[in-house]
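Hi support team,

I submitted a single chain yesterday and got back a structure, but I'm not sure I'm reading the token output correctly. Could someone confirm the output below corresponds to the sequence I sent? I've pasted both exactly as they appear in my results page.

Thanks,
R.
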Amino acid sequence: MQLVSVSLPDLCLVSKEQQLDFALGGTLQLRFPDGVDVPRTSSDLLMLVTEKHLWIARTGSCYLRLDVSIQGEPVSDGNHIVKLVEWVRDCEVWSRAGICLHVQERNAIESSGAISFSIQHPDLSSTLITQRDAFTAEFESVNCHIDLSPNKDLTPDDQRAIDAFIQSLNMIPTQQGRSGSTPRSGLSCLTSGKLEFSESFKQLFEAALEILVLGSRKQYKGITTVNGTHAECLIRLAPAVFNRPYLKTISDRAPLLPIIATSLARMKNAESPSLRQKASSFAARMTNAECNHNDHIIRGIEKSAWNVLLSTTKMPKLPGKGGHDVQRLASNVESKSGTGFWEHTVVEKEEKEDMGLITISPGTLGRQSTGGTGKWYLIFINISYLLHPSGVELYSQSIWNGW
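Hi R., thanks for writing in. Yes, this is the structure output for that exact sequence:
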């Protein structure tokens, strides 16, 4: 496996009230199989996730690391570090995503001037073993660097308003004839222009983390988003790490993929030449696998079913601030029968003059029947809810149209 650094979009926030610039940049550290073309930017990575069905797995210890500086100087004061840890660890965005952060050893934090957290899942969803031939990368860490500085775009009117406010608090004496070149002051600045650590930074951290993790597009009071790409957020780039409701949905459905693949592989013995050809075509996709022809078919179908599962499973809607427990999001994948799946169904396919008709009927796999001018083939079971909650038609079309 090769370690790859994928750059994240730069994010810049401006606090109008505090006259602060908040700049965030970062990278994802991922391990890719040797010999594959690897992404270098988040846009490349998102394309692999959405189009090539890349699965970024949480396979072991993984981390969120932040380097925070003020006007280019790392924050190293112990009390300030403690505040930063509290702001980041207790941010509501983590509970909304269904994960939690555990701070790493303080000694390491204090010596480096950085803060580091391990990313934890509250259940065993992340132990999901992906399909053996799936395109998979391993998640290691997300590393971010943050810098806060006085706003660089203050107009003379802004400066005069800030000075008037500071003077009203008797923080500095009134200066007549003050020129526009005098160093500016602000709610979080000294009169010399040196920015001090302040509680007012907390709101900026919370807004930045919401955008980084969730891709939030909401308006934050007193904060302007100057630069940022909402689509390339962490819950979309690495949902198996940062979106536990989505991960739970996948992990609930994935165990039946081998059963479905084994059942569908029996179509290699179907009466219809087209069905036999379709089944055999999956074997051609597994030329690198060291197994017999039947196993080639099974693994090819299983891989294709995995891709369909990823492409048809919608991201669950995360709760808003103060919303319901994120655990409840999984309720939309419960079955009517209470077993985790809908009642078994079988799909029958009729071939008539190049037109396929899909219907649902009770039965068991393996029966074939003929009647009238059409031939009916029982295709598969246990899939009506497994891959697509709205029914089997989309899935069946995906299978026999070659995915």
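A quick pointer for reading it: The chain has 13 helices and 13 strands. Let us know if anything else looks off.

Best,
Support desk
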